[in-house]
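Hi,

I'm pasting everything inline rather than attaching a file, because the server keeps stripping attachments. The sequence lines come first, and each chain or strand is labelled.
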Amino acid sequence: MNDAQEALDIELEVNGERVRRRVEARRSLADFLRLDLGLTGTHLGCEHGACGACTVRVDGAIVRGCLMLAAQADGARVQTIEGLSDAGAISDLQNAFVLHNALQCGYCTPAMLIAAQALLEANPEPTREQIRAFLSGNYCRCTGYQSIVDAVASVAAYRKSSAGPR
Amino acid sequence: MKAPRFAYARPATIEAALALLAAHGDEARVLAGGQSLVPMLNLRVAAPRVLVDINRVAGLAGIELAGGCVRIGALTRHAELEHSELVARHLPLLAAAIAHVAHPAIRNRGTFGGSCALADPAAELPACALALGASFVLRGPRGERRVAASDFFRGLYETALEPGELLVAAEFPLPAAGAASAFGELARRHGDYAMVGLAACAQREGKTLRAPRLAFFGVADRPLLAARAARALEGKALGDAVLAEAVAALEAELEPRGDLHASAATKRRLAGVLLRRIVTELAQ
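And the predicted assembly:
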């Protein structure tokens, strides 16, 4: 693709389904998911990469949905909170967030869950300090982080004992 | 906010990228990891007519040993640096710095070359390149040239890159035996840009440091080698008196400007605090 275009056709996999759309070049991946695909579990807070509410996974890696263009996800495999929760992959994390009161308004929660899952996959036994460092890119403005860290730590322990409420 | 309208091109080769940059001149910007450029678009601080996305340009990513250097491709993501054995073994300064660069989701996209080409004066990686004596490899319509890090960073967001040139890699000389390095920064929150930071390296002989290079960031319009402080340390056994001399020399040579996060006096003071910490770590 050597010509500069203001709109282009993209094809990608979103939560396991092939998707083809024509998008404006300036369309962010987060807006694409929300506005073009109706996947509104991906939230937009600051739209400049500070708050982390738009976190999604692209080819397995967590990224800021507001800082990636939909055009750049052409050919990629994207997972959103809808895909992760429908698959049951994070049901223990979801349960733990409820048990530990790790959310109030819930705006940050989908991204917090996605980030926590990425952490636990890479590091199944994180220290509290490591949990805090990893989640430092996800802002919560109401609950505070204590109960979120509690919830993630409890899931690490559940998964280790493999006796968690999955 | 949303990015303004722009046209987007995704070349597959360096030559095609250079051709696009030549064709669109000042109206084009290179899009690498996008972790600084896209916020600037969304905030409408930048409004280029054309984005040249180099993410699929072949041969720009990766870390390799070549000709006595560690060569880091411009498109190498921060996360790759973070997990690279080559970096951990040969460039522990970079390995130490990378954990301070933003957050995991940002490090999965942000690139080494993007950070250096942007040249934010408070960024970690440019200071590491300066401390370690790296060279940048630039490709343009007239071919390839190398620019030492000390000549590359020219000012606030200003580098030696000429219009139409692309940063393709950085080359870090392999450290000699006895090389030591240490990194630290002071930030309000984990992952924020530093109020003051220091990337330091030296040759260590017992408690004595030789040829120390102290690259401060967040204290000037570009990463800055503190030459007077380094001279105060050169060849001396580290102790309280030597450290005090180095801090005094540093305070005399730094002229930081205050910003939203810290006043000039605070920055000068914090720079001295960091110097003590990091140099002490260097000599251990």
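The radius of gyration of chain A is 16 Å.

If the labels don't parse on your end, tell me and I'll reformat.
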